[in-house]
Fold these 2 entries.
Entry 1:
Amino acid sequence: MDETLTTPDFSRLPMTGWFPGHMLKAGRRMHELLRLVDLVVELLDARIPASSRNPAFRQSLLGKPHFLVLNKSDLADPEATRGWCQWFAAHGERVLAVATQNAGDMAQLQGAWQEAVAAERQLRGSTRALNRPVRIMIAGIPNVGKSTLVNRLAASRKAVVGPKPGVTRQTQWVPLQGGMELLDTPGVLWPRLRNKAHELKLGLIGSMADELAGPELLAEFLLYQLAQQSRPTRWDVYGLATAPASAADLLEAVGRRRGLILPGDKVDTFRSAIALMKDFRDLRLGRFTLEVPDDPGRHPQPQSQPAMETEESTRS
Ligand SMILES: Nc1nc2c(ncn2[C@@H]2O[C@H](COP(=O)(O)OP(=O)(O)O)[C@@H](O)[C@H]2O)c(=O)[nH]1
Ligand SMILES: [Mg+2]
């Protein structure tokens, strides 16, 4: 932990309040489709398992069984991921940590979903076999890997994938081998995030466009997050022997290293910050989990708010 870095109070900064209309519509549509499904799978980002969980999903499940997937575990600290899985399990959740590119993980997921659906049906006293495919809704905030996961499991390629949030705009059923159907859904955030730090965490994992969150602010937030990690950051990728003392120093180093220079020999801090985000997401700086369980100050608690927001309640 780097004690020399002054801690900016990100939580005091104004929030963007970003909650586009298409997400409101998608949230409503998902609510309608819930009736049709046997299991709701919520994908979380293993780097921020608490901050990437949408409280609105939990409160509007209509009693449907659910299953948590910590995706992108290849990007997170493996020890932290184990801790998160134990924590969720201790809180009564079905959970698995995966990476979509890992075939073994994908096979394990399908088995676990089948089991979950069978266990729930037994619990409810349904003895007859389903005379239709098991239907599973894949939910989650933007960019957690929903469409990639659906594609990996699909009998044929169906869902549209993209490195930026907002690629999946429509809901679609995808048949799998072995009698399951998955419903890929658009990423849905919720209108009231906890505070600016929460918003910036979502920015770091790419649930919000960098330009929207503000790349330079994201860079500063990332530096602050990395300073709190027990694992070392690979600052040497920017030719630095130790952690930079400020975000300005960091962006200077990134810009010089990558040749992102403006006329007058000034570093282009905007492009340097974008490059830094890419390096973080591509694992060049190391594998990090940005929040730990059992530390209420560092991740959002379930908020009590209406199940799916209505147009009226968000128009403020
Ligand atoms: N490192 C890593 N990247 C992933 C994983 N799953 C998906 N991605 C990437 O995350 C980005 C967003 O994926 P996408 O499926 O479009 O997310 P969606 O918005 O939730 O549907 C894409 O660039 C994927 O290649 C994973 O397990 N590990
Ligand atoms: Mg998608």
Entry 2:
Amino acid sequence: MARFNNHRILITGAGAGIGALMAEEFAKQGAEVIVTARRIAAAREVADRIKTAGGKAHAYVLDVSKLASIAKFRDKLHEEVGPITALINNAGVVFGGEFEQVELEQHLNTFRINTEGLMATTHAFLNDLIQAKQGYLVNIASASAFVGLPYGSTYAASKWAVVGFSESIRLELDVRKIKNVDVTTVCPSYISTGMFDGVKTPLLTPMLTPEKVVKSIIRGMLKKDSFVIEPPIAKSTELLKAALPRKIWDEVAYRIGVSTSMYSWKGKK
Ligand SMILES: NC(=O)c1ccc[n+]([C@@H]2O[C@H](COP(=O)([O-])OP(=O)(O)OC[C@H]3O[C@@H](n4cnc5c(N)ncnc54)[C@H](OP(=O)(O)O)[C@@H]3O)[C@@H](O)[C@H]2O)c1
């Protein structure tokens, strides 16, 4: 299937996890993929796999926490490859634990990467998407953008901010009558990539596979969905929160295991 023929898709944090899998899937579907990662070796490994399978890929270093480097990277990419038509803001980190026991720098780094890095990358590349015949902006948030997440407060906060940003950009493009750029905000619950190793998944919220999430993201993009929420039951969170008195919702979140899910978080080694 060549649903992304004529697309040049940049993915941040694409050296591992769902970023790497998206890169391979987009390439299979005809896209030229810009695989970016903090380490060039990780980006090259994914780009090489794509090229060996007959796809088109380029590997670049992009550390989204180095905010000032992002516009320079855009200029270099324009010179060496050209403008992009789709941006997948995927890079992310999490540091779980009791709030005051986690180093302040790790909390701040979470915000710098998950939120500021995503905004700076969008700032650098939005004009490319506007100039494209069909542009896509995909922001990977999280189902924790709809709830409070004990032991993961700055992670949840960074993703709440991503949802607010992503929705605002989508509406801004609409108000500006820019119809050729579709914005999709992705909110999955826990995925088995290692980032959340050790968590206890809440009731009725099974651990998602990277394959399932990537399939949903691509389907959502093609359907021009403004939100992709996985699993579907996570869509009821906002409804329940609005309908129930706060104390009852707090009790529900505790009893179904949302509020305690991060207690046993270990993350990637
Ligand atoms: N896993 C889940 O349960 C889950 C649930 C909801 C949402 N998400 C979100 O999904 C996205 C992908 O996560 P994942 O599950 O695929 O985990 P992952 O395998 O850890 O992927 C995260 C990627 O971000 C990269 N990254 C970290 N800091 C970076 C930086 N400063 N600059 C550029 N890249 C950086 C990582 O690179 P390194 O390998 O160099 O660290 C890694 O490739 C993240 O935004 C995450 O918050 C994940």
